[in-house]
Specification:
Distance between the termini: 117 Å
Radius of gyration: 33 Å
Strand content: 15-25%
Number of strands: 27
Helix content: 10-25%
């Protein structure tokens, strides 16, 4: 009996031991599951700790922004109802942030509104940025990303056949618009229109309107003479001169395999997609630099911030930017006024004027050209035309808003009379009618009509304020050629277009287009001149560039630009 009882008890114990082990395993599994759930609840994407961290960061951001807003209110109060200054904003930010933890610099937002970019590094080493406009509004500052090229060195392709595409930009922003910026007019400037038969001018009664100009896109591959660029008369000491408005724009260049492909693209019978598929496009010059069809860099300047238009990489022309190293101004510009003609001289004075049918002012050094250009009208920021500004005119002229790929007719007047083409008349003749009333006359302008810019091809060579820094002798331009770029002159550090050009200056990107001369600056001839001379025949043109010594010569003149703000 005892044996049987003992045996039963062992069975029970064994059975109980089995149940305990299974329960233990199940318990451990349950605990692991619970632990996983707990960890996920704490640290997952929507976990308690993660949400707590996000909440802390949001609180931190809100606190930081509030401090910036309080500083802005304080800065606004300091100005007694006026616009916020950089100094007052910096002083007020110093009340809320430690020294070195904040920075203020002038800038614009995406809409082109002027103000200040405020960077705070108190909570983030990289810094958070805010935009404060001059009226005290605070918003997040959006940084545009550069258009990075594909990794690798691109194919060395032929750049002889290209189409320049232009997109206008609103205000001083990077926002593409179909409406170009309205011309900026200041005291002493009068908006004008023309009688296209006689060349007579009429003052515009309502210059705030838009019916006195039109930047019209040409269609097909034909010369576009429907575009009426805005014109203005500038009066200095009772002497009238004429200027043409070049509105702020972005551009890109498409390089084709042949003239036929280029023409087909202009005419609309060849799309970009089809051209790429058929290997008719070789590469681009755009925000990525100069790249082949795979987006790999060929050679060129640093990558630029992209302006996306239909997923294409446009870049702002540097003449309108605040980067003086590339020929920009001291601040962003809505546009630039360019002299309609080469400079001529007011009597015996050292004062330039810009009128048609007058022998251009020559036989002066490049340094004196620079000086007289700045003296012309300092209130309007007058200055000698820069290489970048010549490029801005040349690209708009070549685009569908100018001649749409048709070459500008040469001014072949041996008497250097401004605004002429095709007729070798004497200085004593009446030349106003010649300049406007003949087909050849208007074809010497950037628009193929009276509203464009003249003397870009032929007449006298035109010096611009661009130079090679390594020259052995910069004496003739010593007033500006000091080795450093500024708002009035551009320093080039090399002697070959492919390695030293500035994007947008119409040297390397358009090298040899229309058979125009292409000779870069060097150590002996350090100064750029543009356009060619009256007797250069087919070698003259808007893409012509050459190098000179800058001394007094009878075939060299200049032109003035106005950076009106």
């Amino acid at each position: 009996m005892k044996k049987e009882q003992t045996f039963e008890m062992k069975k029970i114990i064994k059975k109980n031991n089995g149940i305990t082990l299974i329960a233990l395993v199940i318990t451990i599994i349950v605990l692991l599951i619970l632990a996983g759930v707990t960890i996920a609840t704490l640290t997952g994407e929507n976990g308690i700790l993660t949400r707590a961290s996000d909440a802390s960061e949001q609180t931190e951001l809100a606190d930081e922004r509030e401090k910036v807003e309080l500083a802005t209110i304080g800065a606004l109060a300091k100005e007694n109802g006026g616009e916020i200054s950089q100094t007052s904003l910096e002083e007020e930010l110093g009340k809320y942030f430690e020294n070195g933890k904040y920075a203020v610099e002038p800038g614009t937002n995406e809409d082109g509104t002027e103000g200040y970019i405020v960077t705070i590094t108190e909570n983030d080493e990289q810094g958070r940025t805010y935009f404060v406009d001059k009226n005290g509004n605070v918003e997040d500052y959006i940084v545009r990303e550069p258009a990075e090229p594909t990794e690798g060195t691109g194919t060395n392709f032929n750049m002889s056949y290209g189409v320049i595409e232009v997109e206008f930009l609103g205000g001083t922003s990077y926002n593409a618009t179909t409406t170009p910026n309205h011309p900026v007019l200041k005291e002493g400037m009068t908006a004008i229109t023309y009688n296209e038969s006689t060349g007579e001018t009429t003052n515009v009664s309502n210059s705030s309107g838009t019916d006195w100009y039109s930047y019209v896109a040409g269609s097909g591959a034909n010369d576009n003479n429907a575009s009426h660029w805005a014109n203005a008369k500038v009066t200095v000491d009772s002497v009238d001169s004429y200027f043409v408005w070049i509105p702020r724009y972005a551009y890109r260049i498409i390089y084709f395999d042949s003239q036929d492909s280029e023409n087909a693209y202009r005419s609309g019978t060849l799309t970009e997609e089809a051209a790429l598929a058929n290997n008719q496009i070789l590469g681009y010059s755009d925000a990525r630099g100069i790249v082949d069809t795979e987006g790999k860099t060929k050679e060129g300047v640093s990558v630029q911030t992209a302006i996306s238009v239909n997923d294409k990489y446009f870049k702002t022309h540097p003449a309108f930017e605040d980067n003086v190293d590339y020929g920009g101004w001291s601040s962003k510009l809505e546009g630039i006024w360019m002299a309609k003609y080469e400079a001529s001289k007011v009597g015996n004075k050292t004062t330039p004027k810009f009128e048609p049918g007058i022998s251009s002012w020559r036989s002066i050094t490049i340094g004196n050209m620079f000086t007289y250009a700045q003296r012309y009208n300092p209130t309007l920021n007058s200055h000698m035309m820069k290489n970048s500004e010549w490029g801005a005119v040349a690209y708009l002229t070549e685009s569908k808003y100018g001649r749409n790929g048709t070459e500008v007719t040469i001014n072949n007047n041996s008497n250097y009379l401004t605004g002429n083409a095709g007729d070798n008349v004497s200085a004593s003749s009446s030349t106003t009618t010649n300049a406007y009333n003949t087909e050849k006359g208007v074809l010497a302008s950037s628009t193929g009509n009276i509203y464009g810019i003249y003397d870009l091809s032929g007449n006298a060579y035109e010096y611009v304020s661009g130079y090679y820094t390594g020259s052995s002798d910069l004496t003739n331009g010593s007033l500006f050629a000091n080795g450093i770029s500024d708002a009035y002159s551009t320093a080039y550090s090399g002697t070959t277009a492919s390695s030293a050009y500035k994007y947008g200056d119409a040297t390397y990107e358009t090298n040899g287009w229309n058979s125009d001369d292409a000779y870069f600056v060097d150590w002996y001839y350090p100064f750029f001149y543009r356009g060619g001379c009256y007797d250069d025949t087919s070698n003259a043109g808007v893409f012509d560039f050459y190098s000179g010594y800058g001394n007094e010569k009878r075939e060299f003149s200049f032109r003035v630009s106005l950076a009106v703000q």
